[in-house]
Design goal:
Layout (H helix, E strand, L loop, with lengths): L13 H21 L6 H8 L3 H4 L6 H25 L4 H22 L1 H12 L3 H23 L9 H16 L1 H4 L9 H13 L2
Helix pairs in contact: 1-2, 1-4, 1-6, 4-5, 4-6, 4-7, 5-6, 5-7, 5-10, 7-8
Amino acid sequence: MNKVTISPGSARGPVDHDVRDQIIVAATEHFRLYGYEKTTVSDLAKAIGFSKAYIYKFFESKQAIGELICANCLREIEMDVTKAIEGADHPPEKLRRMFKTGVESSLRLFFEDRKLYDIAASAATENWETARAYEGRIKAILLDILRQGREKEDFERKTPLDETVMAIYLVMRPYLNPLLLQHNFDSMDDAPTQLSSLVLRSLSP
């Protein structure tokens, strides 16, 4: 896959920021209505009233635009998870909330903005940088919870921390990864509770 870069906004003035925002707003609306695959850069240019060449001054490709919109969608899930965790005092409860909220937030995106969700699924399928960064941030949240749990002696300390993070993430992944989520609807109601309980038992000191 070719590496995608997005033109840095820091090197541009206020007007250029406004143009980038207009492109993203138009793209989000088109992707929501028609889907990522069916929307072309020409469609976006026509909607905004710019030439296609002018849009390419700000984004090198349609995928670069999709990357930014995908990042916004995945950030919503991450923010929901972070907020839920911040409302808990003890690491075991933080972990339970991470499972529960991650699934609920992913499902909400799937059902309320299905065509935008499809961008996230494309990102996961094609291993976009956006998807890799999202996985990294989720693992970082999990790592922080585990460290807190070990410090408070809620969790065992014998297993290497990086190994524990990866194992738990693999348990959560089918319900957080946009590509895999759509294949796990049958277990959505019970999975967060059952899986978090199983993980917490395995973490007992």
